[in-house]
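[Solved] Which block belongs to which protein?

Original post:
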Amino acid sequence: MLKRFAALALSIATPAFAQDAPQTVPVVLETTMGTITVALETQRAPITAGNFLRYVDEGRMDGTVFYRAMHLDWEPRPNGLIQGGTQFDPARILPPIAHEPTSVTGLTHARGALSMARHDPGSATGDFSILLQAQPSMDAGPNNPDPLGYAVFGTVVEGMDVVEAIHAAPRDPDKGEGWMKGEMLAEPVVIVRARRAQP
């Protein structure tokens, strides 16, 4: 009787525990340097993750590139980020989306975080970054360089070695403008295909 009660309690408790985990959608980025699998935060960052999923589902991310590798001389190393996406290609980009700050979503710029690239808040379209290490200064906060921060919408679950390899690829010292000069990859890494992971 005691065993049956314990089994019943476990069967009731397990689904409830599973429902506590935020919902995510896995997406595979097949690049010319390897595969990166990410989990998109469709529950905690529904606008931003939903936007990225639309780019994936409509094939707008296929054939785009990782074009930038920002290096930071901070420990732990390697440090910085890689950036890729549609680069304002009029044939690919969708309308800008509303900004979802980390102060609202509860997400943070941790190692492996996916974060939307933007100019002003509410201007993000189809470009994104992947962080090599935690960058709390990119979160929303009154003491950060940009108090509204950037929008985190997912995290790498497999393939950080590929992210690091892209980050380590040669950069062209003459490419890029302004403070991004010297951060552009000499040979951009192609995102051959972006797709939802098969269940």
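(Second protein starts here: sequence line, then its structure tokens.)
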Amino acid sequence: MLKTRPSSARWPTTPHGSGWIPHGYHLAPHSHPQGQLVYAAAGALATTTERGTWVAPFNRVTWTPPGFVHSHRIYGKTDARLVAVPADRCGELAAHPCVCAVSPLLREVLLVLTDREEVRPGAHDRLLAVVIDELAESSEQSLHLPEPRDDRLRAVTDLLHADPGRAATLVELGRTVGASERTLSRLFHTELGMSFHRWRTTLRVHHALVHLTNGWSVTGTAVECGWSNPSSFIDAFSEVVGQTPGRYQANLRGDGP
């Protein structure tokens, strides 16, 4: 288990800041009086709240409204960019934590906000208005992994967290935790808002993002995360992330368009 490091070690400390964060860095649970956008310009990060975990590679940005307790974990050496959104502007964005797609314009504005000091009065506020406009037009992405409250369902998800590549069926997992397939299937839908298959696929994609960020091959990642063949992995990854594993790695290397 990786130990939490002090937030002042490498994590940006200014409202609009950036920093290269080492793999495995964990920022302990905390909250802010303002909203916060966290963007991994390179690498990937996971944001966890009581509602679950979101993973954000370079084509996603995480949004956490004021007052939500959250933590971050870094995967791969990550260029983390932080943008604070004043509380009186947060009403224009989602009222809950989420991950949104990053358009080319949004990426450039986030980089400018976190790279440059404000020279002309009001420049940062004008750039922030562009960020809010872009996010208002962006759809939420399917990289959210909700976490259960029911003890039986949590026992199942704990088993899968420990071994995402585990090939057990819901019937087999139910026998292990003492619950029927029908009960667990109902709980996945009522508590998590998705099927067992969808939840496990999203969990596996989370882990695949980490492996790909760390330089694993597409085939090796597919096998490690539980897919029977690379083509089924590529299809699932593309559906959730919006691009193939190969394109994701090419963009990590700076080879993308």
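Accepted answer:
You had them paired correctly. Confirming on the second one: The chain has two domains: 16-144, 145-252.
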